[in-house]
């Protein structure tokens, strides 16, 4: 009996030891080592450097799905290199307001947005120094995923950048739901004050609208479910920016539109230069079943030195759509702020020195009407392809209701230029042209009876509902 008891005791002890070892296995398996990754390094185009990694930190702080929102924010606040390990994260806004911060995200990560902004990259306050050397990048050849989880027409911006220098955002795939905001947005810093303020009784342009993103790159980013009035990436303001390898389904892929042109738009009240677009390269942009790959609208800003290279769309309305300001020339907006009420006048803006390079092409595949267009584009649809009596309401609406559907219209629409022979342009009317001399403009799978130069339409090419030419007054009435 004693031997049997001894044997039983030994067996029990062994089972306890084995159980303890088994209990330790999950702990060991949960240990995660940082992935070796150094970001995108350096981003150049046309011999110019737009971003260069300046972060030398070798220690990586890991984020796992077990981290709370507050613990993740604490890691962001410390700066350095923060690496998101594989998993699905349900998160609100993450503020990146420290220089020398790189966010590395495993390609298998999925972010489900619980707020209107996911990554908010800007100084903590308008008086804080500009932040520098910031990057968000996917680890691996594939993009990590962001699900906006929003409503049509709502507010979801996975990435917002403001007053940051030497930045990079890359490797993101965004699943949208036609929210009424751009998904990656570059904006001037704003604090709610108007674009024109009173300083000692004198109207003065508000300098905060000059605090724009500068020297940076957004590349390898795509989105689906884009609203017709917004984009995968929109530049509201920026200097020396490279947008490269961007794609979008529906809506617009890249939108170069500083401000909104509405009376409530403080950016438009900040004068022609503060918050404008300068030295912008837009390269390898694609759109499918949408409005346009690239859309330009200047509002009250004078924008300079824009390159559009290799722009393609399939079953969309346009590859490139160049538009004019929303408001009439020299309008008046009444501003009330700080107990004072005063009138501010806006002049129409324009784009200067816009160059098209490489292949600019629009392709039609099949016969379904998948291309989106706005009411301002109605008279540019080839007359033989118009629906019903030619009224805007005769066309089926887009899925989110802001546009109408037809087949592809033309690779390049220049509502911005009145006559194709124009060499001088009216500053008051805000018109401008695009330099097409270095572009290979292609119309594939369809034709437009009035298009020239491979597929370009000007304001003079518009035709009324009865297929008549517009008068000179009508061409200049915008």
Brief summary of the model shown:
The protein is mainly β.
Description:
The chain has helices at 2-30, 69-77, 472-475; strands at 42-45, 48-52, 60-63, 80-84, 88-91, 94-96, 101-106, 110-113, 117-121, 131-139, 144-147, 157-161, 164-175, 184-186, 196-199, 202-205, 214-224, 231-235, 238-249, 252-256, 277-288, 292-296, 302-314, 318-322, 331-337, 340-346, 350-363, 371-373, 404-406, 412-414, 435-444, 456-458. By secondary structure, the chain is mainly beta. Strands 3, 4, 5, 7, 8, 10, 11, 13, 17, 19, 21, 23, 27 and 31 form a 14-stranded parallel β-sheet that branches. Strands 6-9-12-14-18-20-22-24-30-32 form a 10-stranded parallel β-sheet. A two-stranded antiparallel ribbon has the order 1-2. It is globular.
- Alpha plus pi helix count: 3
Rg, Cα atoms, Å: 27 Å
Strand content: 35-45%
Low-confidence stretches: 1-8, 13-30
Q: How would a textbook summarize the main sheet?
A: 14 strands, parallel
Count of strand segments:
32
Average pLDDT number: 93
**What is the structural class?**
mainly beta
Helix content: under 10%
Q: How would you sum up the global shape?
A: globular
Distance between the termini: 106 Å
Question: Which properties best describe this structure?
Answer:
478 residues, mainly beta, 14-stranded parallel sheet, 10-stranded parallel sheet, 32 strands, 42% strand
Question: What topology emerges from the helices and strands here?
Answer:
Layout: H1 2-30, E1 42-45, E2 48-52, E3 60-63, H2 69-77, E4 80-84, E5 88-91, E6 94-96, E7 101-106, E8 110-113, E9 117-121, E10 131-139, E11 144-147, E12 157-161, E13 164-175, E14 184-186, E15 196-199, E16 202-205, E17 214-224, E18 231-235, E19 238-249, E20 252-256, E21 277-288, E22 292-296, E23 302-314, E24 318-322, E25 331-337, E26 340-346, E27 350-363, E28 371-373, E29 404-406, E30 412-414, E31 435-444, E32 456-458, H3 472-475
Parallel strand pairs: 3-4, 4-7, 5-8, 6-9, 7-10, 8-11, 9-12, 10-13, 11-13, 12-14, 13-17, 14-18, 17-19, 18-20, 19-21, 20-22, 21-23, 22-24, 23-27, 24-30, 27-31, 30-32
Antiparallel strand pairs: 1-2, 15-16, 25-26, 28-29
């Amino acid at each position: 009996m004693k031997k049997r008891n001894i044997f039983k005791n030994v067996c029990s002890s062994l089972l306890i030891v084995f159980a303890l070892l088994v209990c330790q296995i999950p702990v060991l398996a949960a240990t995660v080592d940082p992935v070796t990754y150094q970001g995108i390094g350096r981003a150049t185009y046309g011999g110019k450097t737009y971003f260069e990694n300046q972060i030398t930190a070798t220690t990586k702080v890991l984020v796992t799905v077990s981290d709370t929102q507050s613990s993740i924010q604490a890691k962001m606040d410390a700066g350095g290199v923060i690496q998101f390990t594989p998993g699905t994260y349900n998160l609100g806004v993450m503020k990146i307001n420290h220089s020398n911060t790189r966010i590395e995200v495993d390609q298998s990560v999925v972010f489900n947005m619980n707020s209107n902004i996911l990554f908010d990259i800007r100084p903590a306050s308008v008086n804080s120094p500009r932040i520098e050397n910031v990057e968000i990048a996917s680890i691996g050849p594939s993009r990590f995923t962001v699900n906006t989880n929003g409503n049509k027409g709502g507010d979801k911006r996975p990435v917002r950048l403001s007053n940051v220098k030497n930045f990079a955002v890359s490797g993101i795939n965004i699943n949208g739901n036609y929210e009424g905001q751009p998904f990656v947005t570059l904006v001037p810093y704003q604090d709610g004050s108007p674009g024109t303020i009173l300083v000692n009784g004198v109207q003065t342009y508000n300098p905060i609208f000059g605090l724009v993103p500068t020297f940076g790159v957004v590349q390898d980013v795509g989105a689906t479910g884009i609203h017709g009035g917004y984009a995968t990436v929109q530049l509201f303001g920026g200097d020396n920016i490279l947008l490269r390898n961007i794609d979008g389904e529906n809506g617009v892929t890249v939108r170069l539109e500083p401000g909104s042109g509405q009376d409530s738009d403080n950016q438009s009240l900040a004068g022609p230069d503060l918050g404008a677009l300068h030295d912008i390269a837009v390269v390898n942009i694609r759109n499918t079943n949408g409005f346009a790959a690239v859309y330009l609208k200047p509002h009250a800003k004078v924008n300079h030195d824009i390159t559009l290279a290799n722009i393609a769309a399939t079953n969309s309305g346009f590859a490139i759509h160049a538009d004019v300001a929303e408001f009439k020339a020299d309008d008046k907006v009444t501003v009330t702020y700080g107990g004072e009420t005063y009138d501010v006048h806006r002049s129409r803006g324009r784009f200067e020195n816009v160059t098209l390079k490489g292949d600019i092409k629009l392709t039609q595949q099949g016969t379904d009407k998948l291309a989106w267009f706005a009411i301002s584009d109605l008279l540019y649809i080839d007359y033989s392809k118009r629906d019903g009596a030619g009224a805007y309401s005769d066309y089926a609406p887009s899925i989110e209701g802001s546009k109408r559907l037809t087949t592809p219209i033309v690779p390049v629409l220049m509502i911005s230029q009145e006559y194709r022979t124009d060499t001088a342009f009216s500053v008051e009317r805000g018109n401008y042209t695009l330099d097409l001399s270095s572009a290979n403009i292609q119309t594939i799978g369809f034709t437009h009876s009035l298009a020239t130069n491979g597929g370009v339409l000007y304001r003079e090419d518009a035709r009324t509902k009865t297929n008549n030419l517009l008068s000179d007054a009508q061409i200049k009435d915008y």
